[in-house]
C-alpha cells in the first residue's frame, strides 16, 4: 500500500507492480473527491503514449511550418528520438537564439515537487541560454495584473486570505459574486490533504451566517450554505455592484472614516456613481434592465450589507471575461465602502470558491523544489496571448502600461499542461501551432497538444516515479514513492532532459551529477537544515521517506487579511503606489486605456444577453470548470467518462430553453456561433438561469478532419473568443460566449481522442 497526491486530493492505493488494484481516499480527508477514481482507470488506457514518436511530415520534410494535427506519427527508439531532438535544439539555438524558443509548459501537470514539469523544462532550457516565458495564468490573468495596482499582489491575496475558521465564526453575511463552487474549492496546485470547502460553510451557517450567491448557476455554491440565489445576467456583475455602491453612497451607508484613512480616489469614483461624469446615476433602477435583478432587491441587499459583518467575495470566473477587471475592482471598492477590510469575518475575498488553498493557515515555509536557474531571455508574453504571438511575430501589443512586440518563435517546447484545453478559439490555436519550425511535447497521453506536435516523448504519471509533494498552503508534506512500473517505455522528464543535456554539452549543469533520488534527498536535506536554523525540527530523509506525512510548521492557526494594515496603515502600508487601497488609480489612468480606465466603470461587453449579437445567438454559454476532472486531466478516466452522454461532454440548459428548441434530456446537440461549433449531450436543469447554457471545459479537443472549427467531443473552446480582457492585463476571456443550440440530427461522428492517432510504419 502507498499514499499519493493529486491536485484534487490524497489517495491510498494497492498495487501489483504493474497497475493499481485499488484506490481509496486518504483516511484523514473528511470530504474526499471522487475524481480519485480517474487515476487507476487512466494508467493503461489506450490513449497512453507507449514510446517516443515523431510526426511523419517532420521526418520527411524537415523542420518548418506545417498543418499539424492530422499527420501520422512514426514510432522511434529513445536513442533516435533524443538524437533528433538534440540536433534540432542545437540548430534553433545556434541559428535563431534563445529568444526564438517558447518554453510554454503552462498547466498544472503533476502534483510532485521535484518532477514538476514546468520546473524541469525551464531548468533545462535555461541551461541552453533561456527561453521566451509566459506570465500570469488563464485562471487569474486580470487579477494578477490589476490587484497589485489597487490592493495587493495575488500571493498576498491568496496565501494571507482570512482563514475559513475565522469566517465561520465571525461572518454574518457572505455575498459571493460568481458563487462558491464546491468543485473548484476542492482542488489546489500540488494537492489537498483535508478538504474543508463544505465544512466551514456548514459551521458558518450554524453560527447564523447568511449566504447570497450572485451567479447564473444556482448550485455553484454548496447546499450547506442554503444560499439565496440572485440570478443576474452573466457579464452584468459590474453594473449590479455599481448599483449597490450607489445605494451605500446615496443613503449615507458608506464608512467615510475608513475611506478617508485607508483609501485614495473615492470622490473621483463617487462622482461617476452620482452621474457627474456621464449624466447617468448608477442607481438600482439603472441596473435593473442591465442585470435582470429587481431594483428593490438591489437596494435591500446594499442596506443589509451595511448593517452586519459582511464578506464580499469575487470568484475567479468573473475576471475571465471581457472587461473582467471591472467586477474584481468593484468587489474591492464595495468592501472598502463597507469599512470592514481587516476585521474578522468581513472585508474582501478572492478565490474562496475557486481554489482549496485560499483561506488556509499561513505556513512558515514551502517544501523543497527543484531550482530552475536563470533565464537569459527577458522577453515574455501574457499566457493567454500564445496564438497571437505565434501568428503575428513582430506585431505590437500593449500590456500593463508597456508597449511590447511579439517575438518570432521557431520552436515550442511543452512539458506538462494542455494549451488545447486552456486556450480559446481552438481552430485559431491549431493554425497558430502550424507556424513554428518544431513543436516538442512531453505527455503521458495522446492529448490534443501531443497530436499537434512533431516530437512526442512519453512521460510517466506520478504513480510511476518517486517524488514528494504538498499542496499550496497545505500543512502536510507527503512522501510519494512510485506505486507501479512505468507504462510502456515512458520515462520521467528529468531522465529525458538529462539525456538531452548530455548530448548538448550541458549535462553537468542540468543534473549537477545527481540522480532523481539523489536530488530528492539533497533538496530535502537543504530544506530541513534551513528549518533547523530557525528552530523547527523535521525528520531526517530516511524517516520521512518511510513514514507518515510530515506536518509543516505554521505561523498561526488563524489569520485576518489586512489586519495589520487596518491597525496601522503607516507602519504596514499596502504594496500599491499610495500604500492604500486605490479606488482611483493614477497609474492605471496614466496608461490611457479606454477598456480599463482609472476607476471601475460599467463597460458593456461585446457578447452578452444585452448585446445586438444576442438576436442571432440568444444563449449565453458559461464555460466553467468541470466536476469530473481537473481541467482536462484524465478525461479518459472512469469517473470522467461516467458523466458523458453518447460519449460527449454534458451541457446544461434551462427547461424553457430546451422546450423552445424541441430538445429532450439525453439528446446530442450542436452548440455554435460564427467561430465554430461542438457537440454535447443535453442535461435539463432549472439550476441554470433561463437564457444560459453551462458546458464545462475539459473535453479533449477532437476536431473534425474536414473542419477544425467543429469539435466532436464537446470542448467549449471551439466557440470562445481569443481576445484579451483589456489592454491592462490581456487576460483570458473564455468564461462567456454567445451561442445558439440546436438538435444534432446527422449520424454521430466517431471520436478519435480516446485512442492513439494514426501510427505509421517505423
UniProtKB/TrEMBL annotation:
Decide whether keyword Oxidoreductase is in the record.
yes
Q: Which SUPFAM superfamilies match?
A: ADC-like, Formate dehydrogenase/DMSO reductase, domains 1-3
Quote the InterPro entries the UniProt record gives: Asp_de-COase-like_dom_sf (IPR009010), CT_DMSOR/BSOR/TMAOR (IPR041954), Molybdopterin_N (IPR041460), MoPterin_dinucl-bd_dom (IPR006657), Mopterin_OxRdtase (IPR006656), Prok_Mopterin_Oxidored (IPR050612)
Molybdopterin oxidoreductase N-terminal domain sequence ranges: 4-44
- Quote the cellular component terms of the Gene Ontology held in the record: outer membrane-bounded periplasmic space
Q: What biological processes does GO assign it?
A: anaerobic respiration
What residues does the Molybdopterin dinucleotide-binding domain cover? Answer: 620-732
Which Pfam families has this protein been placed in? Molybdopterin (PF00384), Molybdopterin_N (PF18364), Molydop_binding (PF01568)
The coiled-coil regions, if any, are: none
- Is Signal one of the keywords? no
Q: What GO molecular function annotations does the UniProt record carry, in alphabetical order?
A: electron transfer activity; molybdenum ion binding; molybdopterin cofactor binding; oxidoreductase activity
Keyword annotations of the record? Metal-binding, Molybdenum, Oxidoreductase
Q: What cofactors are annotated for this protein?
A: Mo-bis(molybdopterin guanine dinucleotide)
Tree of life domain: Bacteria
All residue ranges annotated as the Molybdopterin oxidoreductase domain in the record? 48-503
Q: Which family does it belong to?
A: Belongs to the prokaryotic molybdopterin-containing oxidoreductase family.
Q: Which PANTHER family match?
A: TRIMETHYLAMINE-N-OXIDE REDUCTASE, TRIMETHYLAMINE-N-OXIDE REDUCTASE 2
Could you identify this protein by its name? Molybdopterin-dependent oxidoreductase
- Natural source organism: Nocardia terrae
